[in-house]
UniProtKB/TrEMBL annotation, chains A, B:
It comes from Rhizobium alvei. InterPro entries: ArsR-like_HTH (IPR011991), HTH_ArsR_DNA-bd_dom (IPR001845), WH-like_DNA-bd_sf (IPR036388), WH_DNA-bd_sf (IPR036390). This is Metalloregulator ArsR/SmtB family transcription factor. PANTHER family: SLL0088 PROTEIN, TRANSCRIPTIONAL REGULATORY PROTEIN. It comes from the Bacteria. CDD domains: HTH_ARSR (cd00090). Residues 1-94 form the HTH arsR-type domain.
Length: 113, 113
DNA sequence: TTGATGCTTAGTCATATTGCTAACTATCAC
DNA sequence: GTGATAGTTAGCAATATGACTAAGCATCAA
């Protein structure tokens, strides 16, 4: 598996959990401390930490510690490979449809003759 | 968890595996039989079947059996919730940036006075 | 310096995931 | 009907995931 594919897998996997998505949505509003992210979810701190680790490994968030407090922030560019992959799939599919349409048109013309 | 969130989790999870993504890419080119999908991956038929089941549960593909042969096809609309979710996150983040910029502009003006 | 706060680590548990092989069923071609 | 083909089911093993509690460490406030 290429590095790109591995990155995509990490990204999609990170996004596949509803708790992690809710954390991302919260962080889209602005940076937050670990405890701030833990409270609304109702999950224990270690559990949230693990989710944050998954998000950080995927590159979707960045975090830094200042004193006792770790602040997390979203990394908007990190979503790009996901969008790009979706676009690529759509392109392949649309090209196929175009060919299909061209064939249908050709068939109609030949029928006309 | 709402149904929508559950659907999103299924979708992202389905997309998180490189073998499943390669199957989708193949199917974007056009429908294919199970064996056609198995051969290029190098995985056993039962393994591929399982991947197909995951994709079908997520709604990303549809399949039908004719005689002995099961034909699988991509369901392009199924990607839409993923795109929508990404767009929503981006919107939240952009709104935040706008507010931030507005604040900065205001601060600059006040400094001018 | 002592206590509260914020995070981290370690260890456990249940379940899910991803691969396999072996055996089975259903269909098609002779 | 016999054999090859296409898919399916069952069951196994290794690893990953997602939750928890309990205990630890570092920092800040008084």
């Amino acid at each position: 598996m290429t590095k790109h594919q591995a990155d995509l897998s990490l990204l999609f996997h990170a996004l596949s959990d509803p708790t992690r998505r809710s954390i991302l949505t919260r962080l889209a509003e602005g940076p937050a401390r670990v405890t701030d992210l833990s409270e609304p979810t109702g999950y224990s701190l270690p559990t949230v930490m693990r989710h944050l680790a998954v998000l950080e490994e995927a590159g979707l968030i960045a975090s830094a510690k200042d004193g006792r407090v770790r602040t997390c922030a979203i990394v908007p560019e990190a979503f790009k490979p996901v969008r790009t992959w979706l676009d690529e799939q759509r392109l392949i599919w649309e090209r196929r449809l175009d060919r299909f349409e061209a064939m249908a048109l050709k068939a109609m013309k030949e029928k006309d003759e």
